[in-house]
TrEMBL record:
CDD domains: ABC_Carb_Solutes_like. Pfam families: ABC_tran, OB_MalK. InterPro entries: AAA+_ATPase, ABC_transporter-like_ATP-bd, ABC_transpr_FbpC, ABC_transpr_MalK/UgpC-like, Mo/tungstate-bd_C_term_dom, NA-bd_OB-fold, OB_MalK-like, P-loop_NTPase. GO terms for molecular function: ABC-type ferric iron transporter activity; ATP binding; ATP hydrolysis activity. Residues 4-241 form the ABC transporter domain. Keywords: ATP-binding, Cell membrane, Membrane, Nucleotide-binding, Transport. It comes from the Bacteria. This is ABC transporter ATP-binding protein. It comes from Meridianimarinicoccus roseus. GO terms for cellular component: ATP-binding cassette (ABC) transporter complex, substrate-binding subunit-containing. PROSITE patterns: ABC_TRANSPORTER_2. Gene3D superfamilies: 2.40.50.100, Nucleic acid-binding proteins, P-loop containing nucleotide triphosphate hydrolases.
Length: 367
C-alpha cells in the first residue's frame, strides 16, 4: 500500500498547450492517504481515465510529479510501480484456464506454489468462479471474463495500489452489487489503496471512503458521500450527485437572506456582499410544499417513485424539484415552497462560499 501524492500535476494531449483550456487534466495538488478507497467520479471526458493512467504509469504527465510514499515515480514504468490495474473491458488470456489466468501475476513473481493455489481458490470464491477454474477463458461470456480481470487484479496482496477503470461496465446489474460488496470486503480485510473510476454515482458512493468529483478536467471536490450531498463545493457536484440533483437559483445575498424571484429565503448564516454570478443551491430533500408561507410555485406534475414523490414545479421561469414523503397529500392549494435554511448553500461563479466568507474555496487552491 502507498500514500499517493499528486504534485503540481497537469496534462495536455496537445504538444504546446497555450492556456488552461488546452489541458485535459488541470493542475492538481493532493495527497491520497495510504489504505483508503477513492472513487474518481464524473461524466465522460472529464479527465478521470487520464488521471488514472498517469498514476499507473501508462501516461507521462505534461507537468508535475507522482510520488508513492514520497518516492518520485513520475518517470518509472508501470512494472516498477507495483500496482494492479483493471480496465473497462476484459483483458484475459483466452488460451489459459481461469485458474492459470488468476495465478499468472503470482507465478510471474515466483510466488510459492502452495500460496498460489490457496490465493487463487480464495479469489475464485470471491468472484463466484470456483466451478469454472479448469475451463479455458475462450468462450466465456464478457461478464465472466471481466470477473477474471477483477480477480487477477486482486490476487496480489503486496501491491502499492489497486486501480479500477470502470470495471463493472459489462457486468450484469445483480453481479455489479455483489462485486462491489466483495471489493469493499477486500479493502476492509487487506487495506489496499484503491482508486475506482466510474461515472455512476451509486457505484462511487457505495464503494469509496472518499469520492473525487471531476468536471472539465478539474477536481472540484474531494469528500465523503455525506459531504458531497450536504455541502457540494461546486454546482456541478450538486447537479451530479443526487436524483434529482440540486436546485440552483440566481439570488442576491444580503446578510442572512437570499433574495430570489418571488421573495426571499433564510440562509444558514450571514454573508458579506458578494459579486459575480451569485446563486443558491437547495437539494429537493430540503424543499417543502406549503399552502401558506414561502415562494410561489406552479406544480407541473407529481411522480410517485415508491419511496417518495418527486414534485416537478416551476419557480418563475426556472424548473424546481421538490421531494415529498410518500404519505404526503399534495392538494391544489399547495402553491408555495419553503427551504430548510440548513440545507441552503451559496455559490459564486459556481463555487460554494461559506457563511462569513467573501470568496469561494476551490480544491486546487486549498490543497
Amino acid at each position: 500500500m502507498a500514500k499517493i501524492t499528486l504534485d503540481n500535476l497537469a496534462h495536455s494531449y496537445m504538444p504546446n498547450p497555450a492556456s488552461e483550456d488546452d489541458f485535459a487534466l488541470k493542475e492538481l495538488n493532493h495527497d491520497w492517504a495510504d489504505g483508503e478507497a477513492y472513487a474518481l467520479l464524473g461524466s465522460s471526458g472529464c479527465g478521470k481515465s487520464t488521471l488514472l493512467n498517469i498514476i499507473s504509469g501508462l501516461l507521462h504527465p505534461s507537468q508535475g510529479r507522482i510520488l508513492f510514499d514520497g518516492k518520485d515515480v513520475t518517470g518509472a514504468p508501470t512494472a516498477e510501480r507495483n500496482i494492479a490495474q483493471v480496465f473497462q473491458f476484459p483483458v484475459v488470456y483466452d488460451t489459459m484456464t481461469v485458474r492459470d489466468n488468476l495465478a499468472f501475476p503470482l507465478r510471474n513473481r515466483g510466488a510459492d506454489p502452495a500460496y498460489i493455489a490457496q490465493r487463487v481458490q480464495s479469489i475464485a470464491a470471491m468472484i463466484g468462479m470456483e466451478d469454472t477454474l479448469n475451463r479455458k477463458a475462450r468462450g466465456l461470456t464478457a461478464d465472466a471474463k471481466q470477473k477474471i480481470s477483477l480477480g487477477r487484479g486482486m490476487v496480489r496482496e503486496d501491491v502499492n495500489a489497486l486501480l479500477f477503470d470502470e470495471p463493472l461496465t459489462v457486468i450484469d446489474p445483480h453481479m455489479k452489487w455483489e462485486l462491489r460488496t466483495q471489493l469493499k470486503r477486500l479493502h476492509h480485510d487487506f487495506g489496499h489503496t484503491m482508486i475506482y473510476v466510474t461515472h455512476d454515482q451509486t457505484e462511487a458512493l457505495t464503494f469509496a471512503d472518499k469520492v473525487v468529483v471531476m468536471y472539465d478536467g478539474r477536481v472540484v471536490q474531494i469528500g465523503t458521500p455525506e459531504e458531497l450531498f450536504e455541502r457540494p463545493a461546486h454546482t456541478f457536484v450538486g447537479y451530479f450527485i443526487g436524483s434529482p440533483g440540486m436546485n440552483v437559483i440566481p439570488a442576491r445575498i444580503e446578510g442572512d437572506r437570499a433574495h430570489v424571484e418571488g421573495g426571499s429565503v433564510a440562509l444558514p448564516g450571514g454573508f458579506a456582499p458578494l459579486s459575480g454570478k451569485v446563486e443558491i443551491g437547495v437539494r429537493p430533500e430540503y424543499a417543502r410544499l406549503t399552502s401558506g408561507e414561502g415562494l410561489p410555485v406552479t406544480i407541473r406534475r407529481v411522480e410517485d417513485v415508491g419511496r417518495h414523490k418527486i414534485v416537478r414545479a416551476t419557480l418563475g421561469e426556472r424548473d424546481l424539484n421538490i421531494i415529498a414523503a410518500e404519505s404526503d397529500s399534495i392538494g391544489p392549494d399547495m402553491t408555495r415552497v419553503t427551504f430548510d435554511p440548513a440545507g441552503v448553500n451559496v455559490y459564486v461563479d459556481d463555487w460554494r462560499v461559506a457563511p462569513g466568507s467573501t470568496q469561494p474555496s476551490k480544491v486546487g487552491e486549498a490543497a
